[in-house]
Specification:
2 copies of one chain form a homodimer. Chain A is mainly α. The first copy, chain A, contains 7 helices and 3 strands; from the N terminus they run αααββαβααα. In chain A, strands 1-2 form a two-stranded antiparallel ribbon. Strand 3 of chain A pairs antiparallel with strand 3 of chain B. Chain A binds a DNA duplex through helix 3.
Amino acid sequence: MNVRNICLAILFEGETTGYEIRKLSTEGEYSYFVEASYGSIYPALARLEEDRLVTSRVEQTTGKPARKVYSITEAGRRAFIDSLFGKLDDDVYRSQFMMFARFAAELPADLVENRLAERIAAVEEHIKTLEELGKKRTSDPEQWVLGVGLHSLRAHLTYLTENKDKLVGMARPVAASAAE
Amino acid sequence: MNVRNICLAILFEGETTGYEIRKLSTEGEYSYFVEASYGSIYPALARLEEDRLVTSRVEQTTGKPARKVYSITEAGRRAFIDSLFGKLDDDVYRSQFMMFARFAAELPADLVENRLAERIAAVEEHIKTLEELGKKRTSDPEQWVLGVGLHSLRAHLTYLTENKDKLVGMARPVAASAAE
DNA sequence: TCGCACATGTAACGTGTTACATGATTAG
DNA sequence: CTAATCATGTAACACGTTACATGTGCGA
């Protein structure tokens, strides 16, 4: 999924601005499986307009900067849906935390414990976000997709919490505090 | 995780060649959370050698091309472990399949069914690979990491198989075959 | 008054991918 | 004979990130 198609996907559901697209791709329903930043969204929208897959109109607002509202065209809808007919890219999972865990034996136990706690907190946070998104019920496919995310993330969380002590136990023991 | 650190991680466990590093990062124990191709590995190894984090020696082989075997230095070990002390990058999950599923309502049911079947097969394949890797038991942290992957992947697979019909049901119905 | 939210956009930079170039041996 | 595996490396290219530039209104 490149930024171009992410823009089309979001515009498929209704007109918005580049600013909003970034928000949606970072915090919205797509956030757990795509990503895009301003530096890629704005140029992508410009090219999309050149290619007549979207149109734009400038909306003057009082006070705030003018908004450039983009709408998808029929050609845009077709192009996006067509892209889903082709061979899909493989799913990608990248994790520096896993590399960290892989080398737990070389790291001090307290560091491993802290990082594990951080990771667990991050996953819990992520789950909460998806749960919030699921509440404002929208389309069925959206619920389905959110369901995949929640299910996997909860399984991930379960493993981490149930096995964290095991990993800490593999780490380099840290001298007990000088107390006593 | 950049390619540089992936190389160091693999060399941490023992000397090898760029060719082997790619194999390990693509098919080996690291494959499910990192990725690297020749075009990035060879330049990375060259820079690593300049920086004295690895050394190399050329091994003449009969018939096959000469192998350039890299070994990590003490400085390399330190640099790698140090990198794990710093703030870790967030985990990343990217999936075009999820985008596809999100727009199931715009797609023909048979396509959705096929793609789901493909995805399920791919996940099953991936699970099998991790199971194979887990058999040749190595270090405990490696087993732990593999455990995370297997656990999450199995949960993912379960969701897909249990909910595939639901998603197909959301897709555009395809005219039944002309048969009577 | 400080910083955040809104809002758009560019430029430099980093990083990695793909395809190409090269070439021998071995298994089918 | 053909394809695959072993093996290294480069160059062109694609893609995206980060930081910067610019500016207002509002709430704490």
